[in-house]
Amino acid sequence: MTVSVRVPTILRPYTQGVSEVSAEGSTLTEVLDSLDASYPGIKGRVLDEAGELRRFVNVYVDDDDVRFADGLQTAIKDGGQVSIIPAVAGG
């Protein structure tokens, strides 16, 4: 299943500057694996050393935050969209 992945500016060096790329998979884990196969190193910027989502990275499948769904096992339908969004802190 092909999905669209929106890539934030900070990760675009991994995608040669492209803001939206395609990946394969029916879960977020599969999509991240596919993304990393095409753009080596990007998965390590989204997941921590324990294989969990980094604290300051938000990931949405369509319009749903995966932290409030099934996390890395969140299902993604064919043609769905994954958005990787770095958290912004302010004071």
TrEMBL record:
Q: Which residues form the signal peptide?
A: none
- Taxonomic path: Bacteria, Bacillati, Actinomycetota, Actinomycetes, Propionibacteriales
Q: Which Gene3D superfamilies match?
A: 3.10.20.30
State the organism named in the record: Kribbella jiaozuonensis
| Protein's name according to its UniProt entry | MoaD/ThiS family protein
